[in-house]
Amino acid sequence: MHNHPSHIAVIHQNSLCCLAMRTILNDIMPFMGAMGSVEIVSFSNIEELTEEYKNKIFLYFVSDDIVCDNLQFFSQIARRCIVLNEGEEFLHKEFKHINILLPERELIKSLLMIHNHTHHSHSPHHHTEKPKEESLSIREKEVLELIVKGYINKEIADKLNISTSTVIFHRKNICERVGSKSIGRLTIYAVMNGIVDLREL
Q1: Regarding the domain delimited by 138-200, which CATH topology (the fold level of the hierarchy) does it fall under?
Q2: What pTM did the predictor assign?
């Protein structure tokens, strides 16, 4: 029986960057249905990447310097590789890349856009399940949409013609349903459940 690759690898010499990427990717995964069984692993350099792990990995997030130093290896898997850089243009156009200095909401947006393009090609499973949506009310969905678009409580209250205390009440309920107060996690939830369009963020 053939085993599909079931790991995502983060390779970056900065351990804090590895930890942050793993946290964000773990936040995204519960909303991806078919990717629920994927394990995220991290390495500080390519030497730690054994042959055994190479056979398990279907998607790589790698710092630009490590890609450049090991271009022969990564060029062969460019379609399964996302380069982590710090805003400068990456010279090798065959790679997708993400600016890791972006604010959290923008970073999440970049990851979700890449997920939309790569998930069907590189997921270790061939079917996609619709994410399970908790029962948010229509008003809570309206509040959530404005939260992830960057509006503060008072602005949300003005836009929806409700009191600030009502916004705070809805916000508390939303966070309890989603299981997080993180703007990144709320953004992921809203996008994956069709409450907000990525293009509107």
Answers
A1: Arc Repressor Mutant, subunit A (1.10.10)
A2: 0.72
